[in-house]
């Protein structure tokens, strides 16, 4: 009976630490995605600023880069559940607006 107790205690501690490590890794992955989306939104703002200031013919390169940013943003958001994260939720309106502008052009 003592052997069972002496094995069970370290096993339970190891299991708790493994669960904690898994949760930390998941949180790190979400944080990486949030940072990536923020970086992409900043790039998108730069490209959209150029696109909105000129006629459609002169900004094909920037428009293509903005479309690529949109694709990466949508991919990053769809790969992880980022709902409820204020930084992402605040940008969704702008992202949707840019998506519409890119498709129209």
List keywords for this structure.
87% helix; 0% strand; 105 residues; 3 helices; mainly alpha; single chain
Description:
By secondary structure, the chain is an all-alpha fold. It has one domain. The protein is built from three helices and no strands. The mean pLDDT is 90.
Structure summarized in a few sentences:
Helices cover 87% and strands 0% of the residues.
Order of helices and strands: HHH
Number of strands: 0
SS class: mainly alpha
Fraction in helix: over 70%
Rounded mean pLDDT score: 90
Number of domain modules: 1
Strand content: under 5%
Distance between the termini: 75 Å
Largest sheet: none
- Which regions are unreliable across 5 or more consecutive residues at pLDDT < 50? none
Number of DSSP helical runs? 3
Shape: rod-shaped
Instruction: Work out the radius of gyration.
Output: 22 Å
Layout: helices, strands, pairs:
Elements lengths: L1 H52 L6 H20 L6 H19 L1
Helix pairs in contact: 1-2, 1-3, 2-3
